[in-house]
Amino acid sequence: MATAIHNFQFVVRLSMSNGIRRICRRAYSTRKLTNAEVRRKRVELFDAEKQRQLALVTRVEKIEVRHKGVPEECTLIMNKDLSTPFNCAMHIHELLMNRSALALVNGEPWDMHRPLERDCELRFLHFQDEDSRVLNNAFWRTCAFILGHVLETAFKDEYYVELCSFPPPNVSSGSFVYDAALNIGDWQLSQTELNCLSRIGYRLSYADLKIQRLEVPVSVADQMFADNRFKQEQVSAIAAKSKSGATVTLYRAGDHVDLSSGPMIGSTAQIGRYSVCAVHDIESPTFGKLQRVQGLALPTQLTMHSWTYDTILRPRAAKLNTGPLPEMRKTQTPKELPAP
Amino acid sequence: MLKFPHRMRPRKIQIAVGAGQEGRIKRLRQIVTGLVRYERVEPTYAQADEARQYAERLLYLAIKNGDKHKETMEMADYWLLEKDLVHKLFKVLVPRYKNYTTCFTDLHKLAVEYPGSGLPRAVLELRGNPWPPIVPRQRDTRYLLSNILLAGARKDYHISKQKAWEQQQQQQQETSSATLKSSSSSSSVDSGIAEIDREVRQEEGSPVDEAAPSSKSSSSGPQSVADR
Questions:
Q1: What distance in Å separates residue B138's CA from the closest CA in chain A?
Q2: Residues A120 and A211 occupy one common structural domain
Q3: CATH number for the segment(s) B20-126
Q4: Cis omega (within 30 of 0) on the bond before A71?
């Protein structure tokens, strides 16, 4: 019976022209959305927008980048709007390339894969710096962003997970958070299932995905997040708050694209341990019932005994995080979106 | 006066066979002189430990009395074998240590040399000297991500402890007041379970006995499992 159906589909697919097939797929997607489809669409839009922006740089101009710090202070001549701090690190030392998670450009936090715009002074940050609070926040934000990836990829197609937002990073609260509508009904995730989620995040450190930043116009962002009722509402509010008034900052790791004001760390290889600790039900004043998913992570560069991690930090991360609830304010940016 | 922990009794100092008390004092003067000259000396631990007190005392008096004070000048003349150092004491070291609230010297233990005399060695130095530091600067690890997490956990733990303690105090107060009340009516009720017993009595309307709480817990057992 099953083979018969398969054969039938095969025949139908063969007989359909390309256009009809696309229409069919679209009709299907409006009937029942899946995360995989939505993600594919977002990545395609992201790529197209990136290509468009790259095409705008028609003439390669040179800028002077003065590097401060170990192993040596030097001046590099780099390409304007093309070269990133990561490229600078490649020129200087392999150690800088691997361990640097964030750059300071004229004292301002700057993503490792964000092109430099003018002559500047450059410093690299890593997790064992004396005062790594800026980087810690960036790491925590990245982990929440990755949690979004985990939630969107973990469940079967029949569960359509809608991500909402994550509160500003607060490391001392003990856990990072992603608020989302998981749409899984009464299903309470067991410890084993949480471990499975953790493993998805943990595996990303082997994938070594670089985390890219892109500023896109509102129209593109609207198109990208049209399938997510929460993000859809947030896009315009975020754009209103942005410098130019009509752009939104996006981040991408692998095939995951999300809204965030950044900054974030350079690569998923810098995330060492990663655990999804708990899922709590919350009630947002504007978005209704949501789930607050909490996790805990450590950078690859920092080591910790498993006893400390499993007995002290993980149970603490499983307690409900009292960070601000997702909320939309009228004529203002939503509170939940992380400030830079 | 001396701003560091010190021992008031003399140490066992081996200088040479038959050197005697004079030899001992001579060695201490040599060390104090060397300290003022070079600002860092490396005698044995016992010698350094004892000479330190005299050096500190000399500096203290120099700061306190200045170079117009006769006794202090005599003291400097006695401890500093090389007389050009008297000028250094008053012109260089006194201005340096005038505002110090701590002691003026540092004493560090060194590893025992082998093969060698076998005596424990030490470094005695004046603070604020121009040499590279002996103890490397400790890195501040407060803001490492792992340490921030652990500090947060520690804080939570102390808060929970405090809360538990407060609750316990409150309960004790309540139970003591309850026993005071109940002791006037019936003396058989145990103070520890007075609260529970009273609730049970209200719900079931039966006199207090041993079986009542246990039967209640067994009846509520399956229900609680079902809730989970």
A1: 10
A2: no
A3: 3.90.1030.10
A4: yes
Q: Is A157 helix (H, G, I), strand (E, B) or coil?
A: coil
User: Which residue is it, tokens 């979004």?
Assistant: A148
pTM of the model: 0.75
**B35, amino acid identity:** L
Per-residue pLDDT of chain B (228 residues; tens, 9 = 90+): 799 999 888 888 878 888 889 999 999 999 999 999 999 999 999 999 999 999 999 999 999 999 999 999 999 999 999 999 999 999 999 999 999 999 999 999 999 988 988 889 999 999 999 999 999 999 999 999 999 999 999 999 999 999 999 999 999 999 999 988 876 655 444 444 445 555 545 554 444 444 444 444 444 434 443 443
The single-letter code of the amino acid at B90 is F
- Give A118's DSSP letter: S
Chain A hits for B144, Cβ within 8 Å: 127-128, 132, 302
Q: Would the CB atoms of B153 and A313 count as touching at under 8 Å?
A: yes
Specify the pairing of strand A211-217 against strand B40-41: unpaired
**In whole angstroms, what is the distance from residue B40 CA to residue B91 CA?**
19
DSSP string, A93-115: -HHHHHH--EEEETTEEE-TTS-
Query: How much of chain A is helix, strand and coil, in % rounded to 5?
Result: 40, 25, 35
Q: A107 and A144: one domain?
A: no
Per the structure, the complete domain to which residue A289 belongs is given by 133-318
Contact A221, A235 (CB under 8 A): yes
Cross-chain Cβ contact B152/A139 below 8 Å: no
Report the alpha-carbon distance of residue B148 to residue B146 in Å, rounded.
6
Closest CA to A320 of A209, A177, A196, A218: A177
Mutate to test the interface with B, among A175, A302, A303, A305 (most CBs of B within 10 A): A302
Spell out the residues 6+ positions from residue B50 whose beta carbon is closer than 8 angstroms to its own. Answer: B10, B11, B13, B28
Residue A76: strand pairing partners: A65
Claim to verify: residue A101 and residue A67 sit in the same structural domain: yes
Q: pLDDT by residue (tens digit) across A78-100?
A: 999 999 999 999 999 999 999 99
